Amino acid sequence: MSRIVRAAAVQISPVLGDDGMGTARKVCRTIREAAEKGVKLAVFPETFVPYYPYFSFIKPAFRFGAEHLALYERAVSVPGPITDMVAEAARETGMVVVLGVNERDHGTLYNAQVIFDATGEIVLKRRKITPTYHERMVWGQGDGSGLTVVDSAAGRIGALACWEHYNPLARYALMAQHEEIHCAQFPGSLVGQVFADQMEVTIRHHALESGCFVVNATGWLDDEQVRQVAGDPALEGPLRGGCFTAIVSPEGRLLGTPVTDGEGMVIADLDFALITKRKRMMDSVGHYARPELLSLLLDRRPARTVHYVDDAACEGGAP
Asked: Domain CN hydrolase spans what residues (predicted)?
């Protein structure tokens, strides 16, 4: 029997310059607008709350200390007031929400993806395993504990951020857990058209290879925000283009018209019968796999800087 879930990929601009609550309120308004259209799964862009660190792409590290510190002050605690607000909107609308945030954990920021179930419960918080290029000066590294597919009211969901999609083993880790919907997030308003072109290839290929739906959301900066972030007309060019918000079927087809400029939503009905149709032909982790030849070792233990040993369990009381 076919099961159909209506999904929305959201292209949206942040509220710059506030404490993150303005952007979070915008997320909640958008969730409620999507609910009026029958949406049951909404995906928002990479590190959307409070905003993606665009400054790190256009400025050398020794010049963006003030912007980095401001991001620390506005970053999100998980759980915390901002996630509580989004959880309430998810619960109120009965919607699964995938949100990208800058997470602060004491002295380190992380690129985090948070999945809220339709009950408002956080069913996954994962961190980008390898920040890309300029991002390595902003965020710490995630670990294998987040390479997890979770059950939700919308189906089995996996998520990766941006160029994590260029790590084939990370993608395979989610494929092997039989994700039905893959939620992808990119910053948008970055690099230019070539970034959008590459993004389309990436998400369509993953849909084909995994035999799943891909819901991809990118952020967007309007002209005034580009000027505000750049602070110099010579730096504005790299902050334009690079948007490709889209939904892809397991057959690699685009469902609806992608959003490449401005704010908007791509909404599509995901017919899960297409997953079986695709996997009957090619199941990368089933009948098309050769595990006796090729396999993946995934360490899903959370990374820890300190390992505590109970003194009472040690001989002589020494760890």
From this structure: 5-272
Strand, coil or helix: 47: coil
135 part of the active site? no
Q: Which residues of 93-127 are buried (b: 16+ CB within 10 A; e: fewer)?
A: bebbbbbbbbbbeeeebbbbbbbbbbebebbbbbb
Name the pTM for this structure: 0.94
Range of the domain at 11: 4-317
C-beta atoms surrounding 238 within 10 Å: 17
d(CA 219, CA 221): 7
Average pLDDT for 78-96: 98
Q: Are strands 122-127 and 108-116 parallel, antiparallel or unpaired?
A: antiparallel
Q: Is 128 a catalytic residue?
A: yes
Q: Is 165 exposed, middle or buried (0-12, 13-18, 19+ CB in 10 A)?
A: buried
- Considering the candidates 26, 128, 209, 243, report the single residue annotated as catalytic: 128
The catalytically annotated residue of 28, 40, 46, 279 is 46
Domain count, the chain: 1
Residue 162 falls in the annotated catalytic set? yes
Q: Given this model, what pLDDT does residue 27 score?
A: 98
CATH number for the domain spanning 27: value is: 3.60.110.10
